[in-house]
Specification:
Trna Endonuclease, Chain: A, domain 1, single chain, about 90 residues
């Protein structure tokens, strides 16, 4: 039997924990195969794709990111997300 659920990148749990620790609201949506985290911070929403260093987007993710008329950022750690959110 094949498991259709996508495996989260191993760094995702740490990123979620660190973002929540600074006051972000975080919803993990990675089961949707389009992006991984929806983060609320200081009145704005951010969509993040979590990848381990050196890992590329899957073809389905590339297509979604290209077709989406909004911002989705690829991150490898909580600091990447914070840098984007504080701009």
């Amino acid at each position: 039997m094949t498991n259709n659920r996508q495996r989260s990148d191993t760094n995702q749990a740490d990123i979620v924990k660190e973002l929540r620790a600074i006051g972000c609201t975080v919803i993990v949506v990675s089961a949707r195969e389009r992006w991984d985290l929806l983060v609320g911070w200081r009145g704005k929403n951010y969509m993040f794709e979590v990848k381990r260093p050196g890992k590329e987007l899957r073809d389905s993710q590339k297509k979604f990111h290209t077709d989406w008329h909004g911002q989705i950022d690829r991150i490898e750690c909580a600091e990447d997300a914070i840098d984007i959110m504080e701009v």
